Sequence to fold (359 residues):
Amino acid sequence: MKLISYCNRVIEYSFYALFFLVPLVFSGSTSELFELNKMWLTFGLTAIIGTAWASKMVAQKQFAIQKTPIDIFLLLFLASQIISSLFSLDRHISWLGYYSRFNGGLLSTICYVLLYYAFVSNLQIKHVLRTLLVSLASGFCVALWGFPSHFGADPTCLMFRGTFDTSCWTDAFKPTVRAFSTLGQPEWLAAYMAFLLPLSLAYTLKNRTKPLISYGFLALSVFFYLLEIFSYTRAGFLGFWIVNIIFWTAVYFKNLFPKAYFVRMLVIVNVIFLLCTFVFNAPLGSFSKYTLPELTAKAAPAATPAPTQNTAAPATPGSELDVTDSADIRLLVWNGAVKAWENNPLFGTGVETFAFAYY
Fold:
């Protein structure tokens, strides 16, 4: 029994470590700062969790896996990945994942499936609730790290270069324009914040009888929303607002709170979000023109250049570049994906081989 109890604690705290550390971990000693290091940590914790779970089943003399409603879909997906990897253009890439990331390959998919079943088979609802709080704590650290970078003071540059600015990044990475914090991609930061925001809002409402705690979670929600804006990602921004509508609709129909309290919080929270959007801009062209930065830019008088002997028109930054719009890039990528599927309709070209198949 002591061994079983020990295994349970190893599994429980390894999951806490997984949810807290993976969003935060990055290193300058590897060829890729962010995703590669997060994946090594994920593989390591998966090995620890898997070993502890196997040891527990041996001690119990019972092979037990919790059944869930999505088992058939998970197993079909895993089978498709295995078959696709067997017929892959490059089996090494399909097994390990693309060499700069080690994510998305068959190995990482197997880890995720193993982690899912280890989680549902070994943890109880109290552990799930603790995991949610751990995720919020990690998200706060991620947001805290990324917040000053929007204003030109990046902690990552301070760590690697000793300068509290954004000079350590090339022009391809501009955290003052699109923050990415410890996640390495603005899109990933936006998705992470969009995932955490409903959780922090739920705790805001849940603690209505404890005003200090409730307002603390509300402040955390606003902080997450600011990072959502600073990532300047259309998909993440729209995704959050869709989820936000679903969240408040579900709370209303569940009738979890008094109507007066529900209406008050609905108005307070979303007015704050809209004010933040107005003050700091929105990653949507059709709406951004109504935000304070855009209105201020339009109202500012055009600067009159000093007369010089050179009468040629000055070049504007980026005017010499022919940059494809991100929406057009996505259409080109999807067109390549369809063509790759048309040539390999049964099993595809192999897991994680799109970079090769596209050409």
User: Anything to note?
Assistant: Residues 308-321 have pLDDT under 50 and may be disordered. Residues 244 and 270 are 9 Å apart (CA to CA). The chain has 15 helices and no strands.
